[in-house]
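REQUEST FORM: STRUCTURE PREDICTION
Request ID: SP-0412
Submitted by: Lab K.M.
Chain count: 1
Length (residues): 68
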Amino acid sequence: AIISFGGKKAIRESRCAASFLSQNTADLHFGLGDAKTVDTIDIRWPDGTTQTLDNVNANQRLVVQHAK
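STATUS: Completed
RESULT:
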């Protein structure tokens, strides 16, 4: 995901690997400093499609599902 906030951008990738009886988290955490909102969140899904969320409030946990 790529986020834009306060004239800045941040990028995080989720790589959910698994091993015997375990799996890594799919959570992505972004530190926003004093920013109260995120201008855009661009999500690129494994199938190549993209999804954009606009004007998202900070300090929350989002659950985003692939919009097929």
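NOTES: The first strand starts at residue 2 and ends at 5.
Reviewed by: T.R.
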